[in-house]
Specification:
alpha/beta; Rossmann fold; 5-stranded antiparallel β-sheet; 11 helices; 15 strands; 36% helix; 24% strand; globular
Length: 306
């Protein structure tokens, strides 16, 4: 028997080590080069706001195929790049696109110095603890022999109705706390509600279809909605979250897409469709949010001025 977050961590580690995650979904950087280019321009602007330190590190957590960083470097080619990736399989793909990067297993081995970190759909893959409200109080979910079991939990949670589910992502909070402690600037894109709410959000995708999260661990991608409010409550100097469509539109997504459409007319429709998918409320525009960590001496970061 193991706690659900331990099960989720083990399953995802096996999945990303052996499987191609992009057979199940398409991320924003894979939709259009404009996404990564905008983040490259954003990072360069933030670096200038920091006083343009020479030893700044540009890092990415969960860099996928390396597409986002490769596109970002088109706008900021002189950045010193470090990638947080545990999968040897994905590291090989990243090396083909970002050959001069330095790879790390975790935040702990990043060199000292000013840090700007980007992360797209990273926090949602970090493991969550799950709790269910029973007549006798909160119980924590465990996994045993491919099924859920539960044990009484001594934990402070809201007095929700019986049957309610709450999720706690300790790994996401700890990751953000480490970034804040070293004074980093970090920009996250992920999906989840603006405010904390009860409910089970864990889902498994296997071969492009929804699957049972407990079956065939390592064969499916397990994710959960990011609780942005819980992170903001535990980490100082959080900016956002704001909806992805407001953030990207404010930073010139459509203007950059139009520019590239004129430059490459054969791809004009692709640029337009990608921009629409990233910003349409019924697509990714409202479900996905942008959130930043920022040292308190810096002003509001681009995209968070509202």
């Amino acid at each position: 028997m193991e706690r659900f977050d331990h099960f989720m961590a083990r399953a995802n580690a096996a999945y990303y080590a052996a499987q191609d995650p992009f057979k199940n979904f398409t991320t924003a950087p894979e939709l259009t080069q404009v996404f990564g280019e905008i983040l490259g321009a954003w990072a360069k602007t933030v670096w200038q706001m920091m006083g343009a330190p020479e030893n700044v590190i540009l890092a990415e957590a969960g860099p996928g195929r390396g597409t986002l960083m490769a596109d970002a470097l088109r706008l900021w080619p002189r950045a010193q790049v470090h990638l947080l990736e545990t999968s040897p399989r994905l590291r090989a793909e990243q090396a083909a696109r970002v050959p001069n990067a330095v790879w790390h297993e975790s935040l702990d081995t990043l060199p000292d110095g000013p840090l700007i970190l980007l992360a797209n759909e990273f926090l949602d893959a970090l493991p969550v603890r799950q709790f269910v409200r029973r007549e006798t109080g909160w119980h924590e979910l465990y996994v045993e022999d491919g099924a859920y079991t539960e044990l009484p939990a001594d934990i402070g949670l809201p007095d929700d109705p019986v049957g309610s589910v709450r999720e706690i992502n300790e790994a996401a909070v700890e990751f953000c706390r480490k970034l804040a402690a070293r004074g980093a600037v970090a920009l996250f894109f992920d999906y989840g509600p603006m405010q904390s709410a009860p409910g089970s959000s864990v889902q498994a995708i296997r071969d492009g279809a929804y699957a049972d999260p407990l079956q065939c661990p390592g064969q499916a991608d397990l994710t959960a909605h990011v609780d942005f409010a819980a992170i903001a409550a535990c980490v100082e100097n959080v900016q956002g979250p704001v909806k992805q469509n407001a953030f990207l539109t404010g930073l010139g997504l459509f203007q950059r897409s139009d520019f590239l459409a004129r430059k490459y007319p054969g791809k004009a429709r692709d640029f337009a469709l990608a921009a629409e998918r990233l910003t349409a409320p019924e697509a990714m525009g409202s479900l996905f949010k942008a959130m930043a960590l920022c040292p308190k001496h810096l002003p509001r970061l681009p995209g968070f001025e509202i």
